[in-house]
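Q: Can I see a sequence and its folded structure?
A: Here is a first one.
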Amino acid sequence: MIDEDDVLFPRPTTRQLHFCTSMPDIVTKLTIKTRKNAGQHPSAASIYRAFAHNDA
């Protein structure tokens, strides 16, 4: 579960999207900062859910 305190990463920039940076490439640049998975990369699905929740 991702809550607002865990969302410590920027959205992909327009430039990243323009150059077709894939979500897996973006995910490898992100690191979970808290909880039991600290230090690991989030899944692409988690990032998509966080973006969808933030847009709602």
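Q: Show me another, different protein.
A: A second, unrelated one:
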Amino acid sequence: MASSHARLEILERNGSRLRSALVQHQHLVSTVGQNNIRKVKTVTLLLPILVRTPSGGPTRGRHPCPIRTFELPALENVTIAQLTAANFYRCIHSDPALQLVESTNTGPPNTPPPTQVSRFPALKTLICKRVDFQSTIPIDSFVDFLIMRYEMGGEIETLVLDGCVNLPVGDVKRLDKVVVDVEFYTDEPPCDECGASGCPYCDY
């Protein structure tokens, strides 16, 4: 079943082309191999996972998934769904560089502060499918996160919002101000240019 797998686009060793692979999420690293997983550019996460940090400490989740951020330095495109959004966001949001921006604590003496993001540093496109922007990823936190990623050299250039929940047009406009390319899709039926205030088709 497709929903029980993570879809990866893996760069061939010679760098000339991409090949697709369907890999069981529980055995992601062991199946793909350490050498190839560092070349992964696209990952689709559909099931609850456990994203591990470089120190090996897991975030909270129901199903362990041996994805470590330092193993995915080439990752450019990520698709998250409602079941996977919280763990992924918790991991990427806790990047040491972003935590430094949010905190007045400069860290241990004689330790240079990070100057750029270290978790998924190549990430350019984030696709959110049916993510709840109230209970799963609070919109205010998400906007601040996108701004901090930009300031620390990890700008997310394309944000796709597909059937997301608790995401009024006003919040989409906020996101549009901090991301170069925002694509917004809703399950609401077309309005036929009703002109009503707050209509996602007329206002956006």
